[in-house]
Amino acid sequence: MFLFLLEEQVDEWIEQWSAKEKQFGTAAEKLYGLADHVAEDFQNPLIRAADEFRASEAAAPAVSEQILLAVQRQRKIFHSVLQEAIDEGVIDRRHDPDQLAQILYAVFAGLNTARHEPLAASAELHRMAVSVFLHGTAARSTAEAVPLKLHIVPESARKQTSDKP
Q: Is the pTM value of this prediction over 0.85?
């Protein structure tokens, strides 16, 4: 019964997004709209229950797989909008839309898990996440577009830097 309800909820979520998406002209506007849509939806107790169940050790592999498939259906929406942003030149082409969809979905899920604010504040945080996300993935001129490199500063170097007057 739970999986049937979850499937229905995901279908409804996708239908509601499809209706909302039409009001946005650009991919960036769609990303902000998606942020609002997700912020509203994570109030849904069924989503919270699915997340908690999947994270539990008691989750049956077959049920976890069904939950994962439902999540992947939602992430396809993220992928579609992010691919559109890449096609429009808003997001740099060097980024993989599948990875971006996973990251943005995880950011939204994390905001909802750690959220203690009312819905209005939650929506504002989701929109801020999109701003940060777009800034970090922004397309630049080809002269500036270099592969991203992670620069990890050792703890000892950070301490030395912070000790300087």
A: no
